[in-house]
Amino acid sequence: MRRLKRPANLAALTAFRQEAALPAQVRILGLDPGSLVTGYAVIETRAGQVSYLASGTIRAQGDSLTERLQDIFNGVDRLTGEYRPEEVAVERIFMHRNADSALKLGQARGAALCATFALRPRVFEYAPREVKQAVVGSGAAEKQQVQSMVKRLLKLTGPLSADAADALAIALCHAHSRRLYALTASALLPAGPHR
To answer: Is 86 a catalytic residue?
Structure first.
């Protein structure tokens, strides 16, 4: 595993990373972390088309939070080993009314993301309203509406758990946002030499 380099100074830390345009074909891992149940989804985009590969849940079994975090880490590590995603999309944490719940959610999110770092994927995060807006067309959509639209967009039949549907929605939000991200990134890159 490669070691992360420490930035030389604050300017280096905050500088815009000049990266090549996002690839047209990419495998995306969508994660909806929770301290008990973590939803996951794997989709692939190719030439603007989205294909479903897998989805499900990782159920943490331990009695303590530490044991559950280990289950989340191991489950996501197995997924990354099997599907080898180039990009990871995860829901941004929002402050719950209960600070303890927010802290546990943050730790579950951290365990899930750390399990992907061996592959060095590009990681993107989206606010819950942003995900709902991208998939349903309304940032105030209910869970059942998200679930129904995910099934329709990916032409899925059969049951789909709420956690897996949320992870699919996060992955779809990212798939739809990639084109805008690529356009924005290319607009921010300095122009090449003029001839």
So the answer is: no
